[in-house]
Amino acid sequence: MLRRVAAAILAALLVLTAGCGGVRPDGADQEPVGVFHGEGGADPAPDAAAPEVKPMPGYLAADIRATDVFSGKAVSLADLKGQPVFLNFWATWCPPCKDEMPDMEEFHREMGDRVRVVAIGADGFESREKMAAFAEALGLTFLVVHDGGSAARAYLVSGVPTSFFIDAEGVIRVRHTGQLSLEEMKEYAELASKTAED
């Protein structure tokens, strides 16, 4: 009993000191926090003849196969190819994620289908029903999906919220760990849209 209490206290301290960050489920170290635009701190873009899938700017985004929390329909990132995507990893227990959602909803309402917003649960232990109740309580109308945490592992997400802006060709243009403002969302979406048009 005492060991359980000690373990619970230790887990709570880790969550409090890490905010909504923490260590990835596979135990690897956290990736750097910040924004990478495919230059400066990011890996160089791969050879155009041999595109590589990697969760960094300049590389192809990994496909995601998930379930819409409201309709139960299957969703994949490949289905959205041809238009820019704002891909956001989040969790219901994360205060910055909850604070970011109204701006994401405003962004979605302003952008419509010009930039698709996809919010995917990063916590593999959260149920589809819990995520749907959370999204419904906030009045979210953009695509909210559940996949049991597979995409978070593929995208090496170690803290939430983490967002990716992907161009129409499926190439990641921005990776940002931390809460985004509406203005930042628009700025990054414009970058992904311009790149897609070039």
UniProtKB/TrEMBL annotation:
Gene3D superfamilies given in the database record: Glutaredoxin
Signal peptide: 1-20
Domain of life: Bacteria
InterPro entries recorded: AhpC/TSA, Thioredoxin-like_sf, Thioredoxin_CS, Thioredoxin_domain, Thioredoxin_ResA/DsbE_sf
Alphabetical UniProt keywords: Isomerase, Signal
UniProt keyword annotation of Isomerase present: yes
Any one Gene Ontology molecular-function term assigned to this protein's record: isomerase activity
Occurrences of domain Thioredoxin (ranges): 55-194
Keyword Signal (UniProt): yes
CDD domains membership: TlpA_like_family
Pfam families reported in the protein's UniProt record: AhpC-TSA
PANTHER family xref list: PROTEIN DIPZ, THIOL:DISULFIDE INTERCHANGE PROTEIN DSBE
Protein name: Thiol-disulfide isomerase/thioredoxin
Organism: Symbiobacterium terraclitae
